[in-house]
Amino acid sequence: MDRKKLIKYLKIAGVVIVVALFLWFLVIHPLLTFRGYEKDIENAAKRYFELNESELPTGARVKTLSVQELFDQAYLKDDFYVPLSKRPCSITESWVKVRREDGEYKYYTYLKCGVISSLVDHKGPEITLNGDEEITIDRGSEYEELGVKSVIDNSDGKMSVDDVTIDSSDVDTSTAGTYEVVYSATDSLNNKTEVVRKVRVVSRLENVVKEEAGDAGVYTGLNPNNYIYFSGMVFRIVGLDGDNVKIVAEQDVSNVNYDAIDEWLEYYYEHISSKSREYIVKSKYCDMKTTDENISSIRECDSYTKSINVSILSASDINQATDANGDNYLYPNSISWVRNEADDKNSYATRNYFFGTVNKFMSFDKNYNLGIRPVITIKGDTLVVSGDGSQSNPYSIGDFTRGRADDKVNTRQSGEYISYSGMLWRIIDPEEDGTTKVIADTTIYSNNNSPITTYYETDDEAKIYNPKQNGNVGYFINNRIPEYLDMSYFVSHEIEVPIYKRAIKYGEESSTEKYEVRLSAPNIYEMFTATDFNSKMMKSYWFINSSQRENTKAVMAEIGTILYGDLYDYEAYGIRPVAYLDEDCVIVRGSGTFNDPYIISK
Q1: If you average pLDDT over residues 13-24, what whole number do you get?
Q2: What structural domains and CATH numbers belong to the chain?
Q3: How confident is the model at residue 5 (pLDDT cuts 50, 70, 90)?
Q4: First and final CA of the chain: distance in angstroms?
Q5: pLDDT-based confidence at 447, cuts 50/70/90?
Q6: pLDDT tens digits for 486-495?
């Protein structure tokens, strides 16, 4: 043989040897080692039953011994490792099963070592359910079992659905929640499979109202459990509107002149989260005219708006909420508009009481800025996912996700609460520049617990809000109030002061002035600038809105309504500041509610 052929054969032989060694070390040797483990386990099981013969199964029964148990009782001593590694085999997932077949006991060993496992049948039957693996049923209804469609085993073939055990004992249809129905089946080698069907027991909002409000479908009395979260804000459930449910803001959100209500409500609708808007049903709302003689007794309506997203309550809505004792949760402590005109110039508002009269309704000039509580109709089949309707635990419909730790504050929703500088603040708006506009939940107090007040000390006939003018209310708020607050998280921001020619009316400012400030007074027409009656320390406070007409200024009185008469220079009122949180502020903890506000850091 010549040299070239010899070299060629030697190369081929070398490759064969390398492949053979590769197969030996990576395939054959690991497999032989694994088979040796299986044999050791089987022999250990046989020794176990030699000493515990009474435990051998009879008939068609199967007895299972876990490898863990064989180690615990010292029938196995040397650990098993995944071949070519130092990782132990899984002794908790490995077992030996024994069954009497043709008069003799046969052993089946299953060992799991990494990617290598025994070829013995170790999988239970495949269970296929009728219906979905997650179903939803109404609270109080009867759970109807949908059953099993088929059961097939890889060794035993098709099995009877009657062989499946169904455990639905966990389901409690009287209580809302998510429950499990467990379906289990075993094959001839006692390999078991479990499949779980989740059963969501829910309350549909329409049914909740029917159950709690009775045949009339409206909540009555002084303190019914009808609180509900919607778009991160607290509402009260008024009652049914056909198959849907009418809800109203817990209290005044803002103040506005009557003729601008619909325009203002469009602004309000923009502050409802996009997810929450999906639940809103456009509806027609009562807007009938009435008289002093009739308004306290009307319960029916003969005139309606066109279909709209948001409105306000009418006198008939409020009257229907009065119980046999004359109690009614819908009467506010402020003065709030109702959707009832008296004539072309005057409309009605409601209040818990008016000085000097027992009437709960009174007509006012439409130019006055009185409280406004938006009312919305949402789908009746909306699911109540949590809550019991109480003030401390309102119903929740899952339309709103609370902020989490490390979320930026500027990603949050209008209406949520923040705790900072020892007091509560409420989000008005996240701004386009990343800052977050907030309003204090209460007025500012000094260190000796006295409310801080100020007044105009300028010679100008028309007192225009100006944070750059010494002696001006705006100057005092911007320069003196920071002495009482931690300003670390607040940043300077441009504000716009609306200036009116005569009456202060929504959308009718004649001009505006822009200023860079740290703190300012609130705007009458912005979100959450009305008196917050959750607050225990709210006093009077100035607004930013200014008029060129002498003695026409904007102030919230301590009784919770905007003063609509002339205000004079010597009159002093409190401060409820508006500020802008730095764009880097993040949530540390909390859920953004009045009782559990967000704690923030930067």
Answers
A1: 56
A2: 3-117 (no CATH), 126-202 (2.60.40.10), 214-384 (no CATH), 409-601 (no CATH)
A3: low
A4: 85
A5: confident
A6: 999 999 999 9
Rounded Cα distance, 311 and 305, in Å: 9
If you average pLDDT over residues 329-336, what whole number do you get? 92
State both tokens at 438.
């907030």
Q: What is the pTM of this model?
A: 0.76
The secondary structure of 67-126, three-state, reads HHHHHHCCCCCCCCECCCCCCECEEEEEEEEEEEECCEEEEEEEEEECCEECCCCCCCCE
CB neighbour class for 574 (10 Å; exposed up to 12, middle 13-18, buried from 19): buried
Strand 541-547 vs strand 493-500: parallel, antiparallel, or unpaired? parallel
Instruction: State the pLDDT at residue 387.
Output: 87
**Coil/strand/helix, residue 12:** helix
Name the maximum alpha-carbon separation found in the chain. 130
Dig out the tokens for 25 from the structure.
Answer: 């070390």
Does pLDDT of 598 surpass 80? yes
- The model's confidence at residue 288, banded by pLDDT at 50, 70 and 90, is very high
Beta carbons of 360 and 351 less than 8 angstroms apart: yes
Q: 103 exposed, middle or buried (CB, 10 Å; 0-12, 13-18, 19+)?
A: exposed
- Determine contact, residues 555/274, Cβ cutoff 8 Å: no
The residue whose two tokens read 């590694």 is 85
601 residue type, one letter? S
Q: How far apart are CA 598 and CA 424, in angstroms?
A: 9
- The answer to whether 64 and 70 have CB atoms below 8 angstroms apart is no
Concatenated DSSP letters for 381-410? T-EE-B--SSSSS-BB-S------TT-BGG
What would the two tokens of residue 312 be? Answer: 């306000």
Q: Which tokens belong to 214?
A: 């009775």
Strand order in the sheet with 346-350: 254-257, 369-372, 336-341, 346-350, 361-365
Cα→Cα distances 308→374, 444, 504, 511, Å:
12, 39, 26, 31
Of the pLDDT bands very low, low, confident and very high (cuts 50, 70, 90), residue 71 is: very high
Asked if 388 and 396 touch (Cβ cutoff 8 Å), the reply is no
Amino acid, res. 326: G
- Tokens for 517? 């400030």
What is the model's pLDDT at position 449?
85
Q: What tens digit of pLDDT does each residue of 366-391 get?
A: 999 999 999 999 999 999 988 889 99
